[in-house]
Write a structure and sequence with these properties.
This protein is mostly helical. The chain is 46% helix and 8% strand. It has 2 domains: 165 residues, no CATH class; 113 residues, no CATH class.
Length: 388
């Protein structure tokens, strides 16, 4: 009976001894390289979850994040139920890039997802310039909220993601998880009655970031709870517009930022804005949980000190593109993307001052501005004159 050879086997049989040795070396070398690449791509299959968790935490702290924690990647059922119970107030979020309802369905976003990474950026140590902090929320002045890639905090996030991917970890893209809930699940923050998240030694003056990944980690104990004193109402009573109407309950349409970032700005809300043109911190400043944190805020920020010297509401009202890019955009790039919205907001702030010295600037804005600026200037002029 004749021996049968496969075609590949027949060619191998014909090779010389040295050719066979070379071919075997190539096969073995290629196999080792491919196996190594597969292990890298699977990033963590070659190391246990304790070692992987430690590597990630070390890198996060090295990059300057204040807290880092891990949680299993399970759908945020509790968050989804709460969101749906308030659906009428938050319909405007659905379908947009900040759709946290969609971002709570983790298994749909990443079927292979196994873990959540939560990170805290601490900006509580900064002593913010008084004039700027009267017009901008501290999170925006920190330049750490929704940072651009070419900003220091944006670069920090990119470096962290690059590191995860260098370990072969797949990071879910195009998903906006509710960061407060994700970070509470990861055990690094608790809730406040004012709807802000609080981290130990940082208070609520923090910015959060969360990631969904495809590797199993060592998980931290969840801290989804409110640690405020039971009978405290400091934040609720301090809200200028009544937007914060109960513990953990807010009417977004009464919140300053809702109108400040849109072309339509409710008259009842704008007249309480005082000097504000981008955010409000009243409920955080009134909070007893932030008292010791505020007392320790002593670090100065040279960049903000430079901006404060140039910042002026009249200049904002009449600003050109150069002033906008140099003074306003670096601290106001988050939600408001149009120069004229800031000009309108500045007009309202000047109108709230009731000071007649601003009438010439407001008249100029009314004559030269577009429809949004003209509306704000007209409202401000009337608000000043009705006092007479």
């Amino acid at each position: 009976m004749k021996k049968k050879y496969s075609l590949n086997g027949y060619f191998f049989f014909l090779l010389t001894k040295s050719q066979k040795s070379i071919l075997l070396f190539i096969v073995v070398y290629t196999t080792v390289r491919l196996t190594g690449q597969q292990n890298k791509n699977r990033g963590g299959y070659s190391m246990d979850k304790h070692e992987l968790s430690q590597k990630i935490k070390y890198k996060a702290y090295e990059l300057g994040f204040a807290k880092v924690g891990f949680a299993p990647a399970e759908d945020f059922t509790e968050y989804i139920q709460e969101f749906e119970s308030r659906i009428e107030d938050y319909k405007f979020l659905i379908g947009g890039k900040n759709d946290t309802l969609k971002g709570s369905a983790l298994k749909e976003a990443m079927p292979e997802g196994k873990s959540i990474i939560g990170l805290v950026v601490d900006h509580s140590k900064t002593c913010y310039p008084e004039k700027l902090s009267k017009s901008f929320g501290r999170a925006y002045l920190s330049q750490s909220y929704m940072p651009k890639d070419d900003m220091i905090h944006g670069a920090r996030i990119k470096l962290f993601v690059d590191y995860l991917e260098s370990l072969g970890i797949n990071v879910a893209k195009n998903i906006q998880m509710p960061d407060r809930y994700a970070c509470a699940k990861a055990g690094i923050v608790t809730y406040g009655k004012n709807n802000f998240a609080y981290a130990e030694d940082c208070g609520s003056f923090i910015v959060l970031k969360s990631f969904l990944i495809d590797q199993e980690l060592e998980y931290d104990e969840s801290s989804v709870r409110c640690d405020c004193p039971p009978n405290c109402r400091a934040c609720i009573d301090s809200c200028p517009t009544g937007a914060l109407y109960a513990a953990g309950k807010i009417n977004p349409r009464k919140c300053f930022m809702f109108g400040m970032m849109r072309s339509e700005y409710d008259s009842d809300v704008r007249e309480k804005a005082e000097n504000r043109i981008h955010g409000c911190d009243d409920c955080q400043l009134a909070c007893p949980r932030n008292k010791s944190v505020l007392q320790k805020a002593t670090q100065t920020n040279p960049f903000l000190e430079l901006l404060e010297k140039e910042f002026d509401l009249e200049k904002v009202l009449l600003m050109d593109d150069e002033y906008y890019k140099r003074v306003i955009y670096p601290i106001g790039y988050n939600y408001i993307t149009k120069k004229e919205i800031f000009q309108r907001n500045a007009a309202i702030a000047l109108g709230n001052s009731k000071d007649e010295k601003y009438i010439p600037s407001l008249l100029k804005a009314y004559e030269e501005g577009n429809a949004i600026v003209r509306e704000g200037a007209a409202w401000a002029l009337e608000n000043i004159r009705k006092e007479k």
